[in-house]
């Protein structure tokens, strides 16, 4: 196994793996801070916003709930710290580029603009998803019913289908990165480790994202399919996410078990995919099995999964 020497310290939060690529100066595109036409004003600056609350932390940044001082519109503002570091800065600019490309998809958190702070940190202005994440919903309300999971899966797959059709791999699908607003709309968030793929299928094997939700081939590409695209890895992560929301804990762990990086890697790569409990319907079981194929080429695509009976059984047509 290629990564055994990079074992992480056990952590109650499922650990993340950083991408260690060569550092080099990153030029700033002249139009990178131009926001979409729906933004609050022609230019954005730190003084335009009042911080109301901290919404969360992750991937080297902090997300705030903010109010635009002129329009009183409420937004989410993600501030990526240490953007003087070339690697971090490059990743932030890539995140902005991807968000701009996906601004018209209803199942992706909407991008409203970005600006640079005097400290060098880059801030990304997005719509506020005021009902939190699926991770929060699981902790607060308990496990999800199949009917609710069907709705969640459909909306996430609509977002993934949109991204994949534009050669974008998210690479960090998990409950905390799927957000809900007060209209019960489900949207994909946090593109901090996403990748714009080339025109041809290519390896997507930099070790970024949350290792617990990584597919087998992301740990060991040579054993599981050689060169692979990142799209099927997103499908694996979605399967684990739905599984977790149904049973209430991460699939490869017992309830209350502490995650360990090496243990998770071995379980994902060498164990059979986890099986849903007997309470699951045959349609849901089949859907998850289509996501959790060990061989990446055998997994259904996002477009194919949108036609699966689990999503279609309650629809008039599909």
From TrEMBL:
MF GO annotations: ATP binding; MAP kinase kinase activity; protein serine/threonine kinase activity
Domain of life: Eukaryota
Residues holding ATP: 78
Keyword ATP-binding: yes
Listed name of the protein: mitogen-activated protein kinase kinase
EC number(s) on file: 2.7.12.2
Segments of this protein annotated with the region Disordered: 1-20
Alphabetized Gene3D superfamilies for the sequence: Phosphorylase Kinase, domain 1, Transferase(Phosphotransferase) domain 1
Short name of any one Pfam family annotated for the protein: Pkinase
Biased composition (Basic residues): 1-11
GO biological process terms, semicolon-separated: response to other organism; response to stress
Chemical reaction(s) catalysed: L-tyrosyl-[protein] + ATP = O-phospho-L-tyrosyl-[protein] + ADP + H(+); L-threonyl-[protein] + ATP = O-phospho-L-threonyl-[protein] + ADP + H(+); L-seryl-[protein] + ATP = O-phospho-L-seryl-[protein] + ADP + H(+)
PANTHER family to which the protein is assigned, alphabetical: DUAL SPECIFICITY MITOGEN-ACTIVATED PROTEIN KINASE KINASE 5 (PTHR48013:SF9), DUAL SPECIFICITY MITOGEN-ACTIVATED PROTEIN KINASE KINASE 5-RELATED (PTHR48013)
Lineage: Eukaryota, Viridiplantae, Streptophyta, Embryophyta, Tracheophyta
Domain Protein kinase intervals: 49-311
Family: Belongs to the protein kinase superfamily. STE Ser/Thr protein kinase family. MAP kinase kinase subfamily.
InterPro entries: Kinase-like_dom_sf, Prot_kinase_dom, Protein_kinase_ATP_BS, Ser/Thr_kinase_AS
Alphabetical keyword list: ATP-binding, Kinase, Nucleotide-binding, Phosphoprotein, Serine/threonine-protein kinase, Transferase
Keyword Transport in annotation: no
